[in-house]
Amino acid sequence: MPDRGGGPTGPRIRVGRPSRRARTLLMTLGVLAVLGMAFTMFAGFWTDWLWYRSVKYSSVFTTTLWTKIGLFFVFGLLMALAVGFNIWLAHRLRPPLSAMSTEQQNLDRYRMGIAPFKKWLLFGITALVGLIAGASAAGQWRTWLMWVNGVPFGKKDPQFKLDVAFFAFDLPWYRFLLGFGFAAVILSVIAAAITHYLYGGLRLTSPGARATAAATGHLSVLIGVFVAFKAVAYWLDRYGLAVKSSDFKATDNWTGLRYVDANAYLPAKTILFCIAVICALLFFATLWRRTWQLPVIGFGLMVLSAILIGGLYPAIVQKFQVQPNEQAKEAPYVEKNLSATREAYGIDGTEVTEYPGRSQAEDKSRLRDDADAAASIRIMDPNIVSPTFQQLQQMRNYYAFPTNLDVDRYAKDGKDQDTVVGLRELNLAGIPKKNWINNHFRYTHGYGVVAAKGTEVDPEGRPVFTESDLPSKGDLGTYEQRIYYGEKTTTYSIVGGPQKEIDYSDDSGEKTTSYKGGGGINLANPVNRAAYAVAFNEPQILYSGAIGDGSRILYNRTPKQRVEAVAPWLTIDGDAYPAVVGNRIQWIVDAYTTTNGYPYASRTTLGDTTADSLTAANDNRAVVAQQNQVNYIRNSVKATVDAYTGDVKLYQWDTRDPVLKTWMKAFPDTVQPKSEISGDLMAHLRYPQDLFKVQRELLTRYHVKDADTFLSGSEVWQVPDDPTNKSGDAVPPYYLSMKMPDQKEQAFSLTTTFTPNGRDNLSAFMAVDAEAGTSGYGKIRILKVPTSTTVDGPKQVQSQFNSEQDIAESIRLLRGGDSEVEYGNLLTVPLDGGLLYVEPVYVRGGGLKYPLLRKVLVTYGGNTAFENTLEEALNKVFGAEGSAPEPPDEDRDEGTTPPPATGDPTVQDALNDAQKAFEAGQEALQKNDWAAYGEAQKDLEEALRRAEEAQARAGRGADGEKNGDDKAGPTPRPSGSATGGSDSG
Length: 985
Fold this sequence. Notes:
By secondary structure, the chain is α+β, with helices and mostly antiparallel strands.
């Protein structure tokens, strides 16, 4: 363009090549960028390898890695070769270009443009499709390992008479291969067609034939291969019917063949297979007969057949054969589904017995002792009392307890007792001053177990601790109390180096320690430090002086996280729980093997089935599922994680599970035999909650064994909502030592209730023997209430509690001021044909920020009690309330017991002192002044003792020798005394 300014032009700027210095700088920056990306990738790989080596499961890392690499390269190369070969072949079969049409002249510009880069373009396309295909195949490493290592189930499906392993291990792999084949053929057809069009083999607007003979033959063969794969798909679809889910009114996620599948779809798939084979041969025949006529006719017939035979014919069979007599037609297939589902979920041995639901005893007072023998009723709700543990046993702000505590069994004087257990874990949110050193070097671990009796509380409604204080001491003896691995430990720590760690604090000040557990990864190596600095995006790891000889980094510290990492083929139970085993704190984690390919077994969604009111409030309790939809599950592995060293051990639990045997072949020496479980560990193993929740959900329908009842839906149950809150979520199962009607003594059990579908009255009560190592472990018992009898369910019982006038008034008083009432677990216990319901009631308020047990609700046979203690409530319900012993007949005054002698001045003075001591204790309790509270309790005890002695002397003085041997009446207590409990909350 001319210069329109009219003035002189400036000097011309010549754009030349960059200077040598600039080129060197750019080249250096480029090299550094590549090295940086390479080291970032290396850091991720290297830190993973170091972690697996530190937990002694390096074989899991290498097996998984080499399997992924092998699948990536094999299938990536196959895809690249398939697409690349067909592009090359289409280019080689290009026609000579003579008479040039307008279409070909336009394409010629593209051909000229890519001519210098044809090899590079071919390489780029094949590399791209190869990378995508390889990455997709690498994700199938589990499918490959299960196929190549599959172990027979020893059980055949009822339709095809094939071992279940074919459907669980083989069929998924064959389907993957088929899907890969379809993808390879489709991409090859697209690539070949584009190449043929670009080089004139296919013509859209040019005069003459639309395709050359070479292009016709090439594309016909590819389409023939596609149709051949379709034939294979039809054949595999026959077997897929055994694991196909469908909508069926009898149940959700119905799996397996029904009448229409066996009598319409199955023959249709066989016919379509034959038609597809013939159609594929017609396409291959175009190599000799260069015409599309017969293949196109054959393909059209195949599509028409798929519509008529595969779609319309089954619909006709369903409409005119099945629906008019569905009960009779479907019954044989429902029986197969019933049998397979019960077997796949381990509920085939469930014992269902009729239970009246109401006691026939006329004199219920005799049941008072039976109630104590029927169950060790746990009034300490582990899901309520965590704040109480926190307030009374936290000791320091940088400690915390989990939201939901656990229930375990510990022996005391040779007798097991249900115990509520929690660990005093590290809570970084509570450290005095947050910085990198404090967060990762000084505050590194929790300290000690806190345990309380599940069946008792002290006079103030607080837990009766059997293990408490800091360091913890009590019934558990001596053990390593430091907790470096726990449910709340979600960040990394660097331990064992120059920087000392805070161990715990006592009256003499802070105690320090240095980690000696041997866990974690050594950071003395500069390469390791650099790798972790990159992996954790924390440069200070590389140069901090707090890291030196002996420094080790701990991460992946939650029990479920560690077990999932070392066994990525397992599904992890949502509730890991701690136990003192020997002299160590061990986290116990239940793990499951699952499959989605058990023929005829209906599917369930683990995330939905295992959800309840506790998981809704606490994400940490959710199951960690490898596949969410399954139709086979076994608790095949019990795992432990050492709270100090982080060591992970996997123990084979189900010795017959073929899925576990398959994974043990794939990952040898990772799972220890069941015989390696020590007696101390066995005493703390229990039936897992998530498996129980899956089984109870299935048993809402599959408790029946005959097809007619199943199809009618008259016996469908549901898991009731949690009546103690308004969340609308399912009631969680409860651990409880109890006795079922056919048992002679109590057994540690996991229990739940059922209600009819859409109603609130009780249908059944379910319990499983949960104590590992016993002959009855895993036995499921269901007590089925007759449909002709109406028995209150949990929601109705809770409503009855809330609606009774006296109880409602008492609860209103408990809520006085700023107090809150919290309902504990509503426990159900079978007793003499009826059902005993027990619910602890906690009060949080006044000056207290944690719940205390104030009342206990009990109901049985229509009688309800709301008392200060469980004993009092049971006495009232069964009409066995205690009273003072009656004097001999000659001493009775119209059948009444003389009132206690409270008029004596000495007695009255002592009672006044007791009242003052009690009030002083309450004031100290609200101020959290435990020293003053202890003194007040001593004064209270002393005053009560003086009152009792004075009353006894007064009684003897008044009656003389005549009543000299009579016992004194009950000692009066000051209002709201420690022994009687308080109604004020």
